[in-house]
From TrEMBL:
One of its GO terms (biological process) is regulation of DNA-templated transcription. It comes from Pseudothauera lacus. This is Type II toxin-antitoxin system RelB/DinJ family antitoxin.
Amino acid sequence: MWTSNVGRTRIDRHIKVVATDVLAGMGLFVSDAIRMFLTRISADRTPPLDSILLSLSRIPTDNEAHSVIFQ
């Protein structure tokens, strides 16, 4: 049997709102996504950098970022 542990983090409000909507569409909560992320790190003994580095390989310009955020 596992026990719960509460973790707190500071997240930009807009990011949390959008992420919450995306996850809700998948039937998940933010806590589910965090749990999955931490479980993956625990199992692999490393963060899932492949997807993080892939997304960082093309950093958008300010105009591109603005258009994505405010579509």
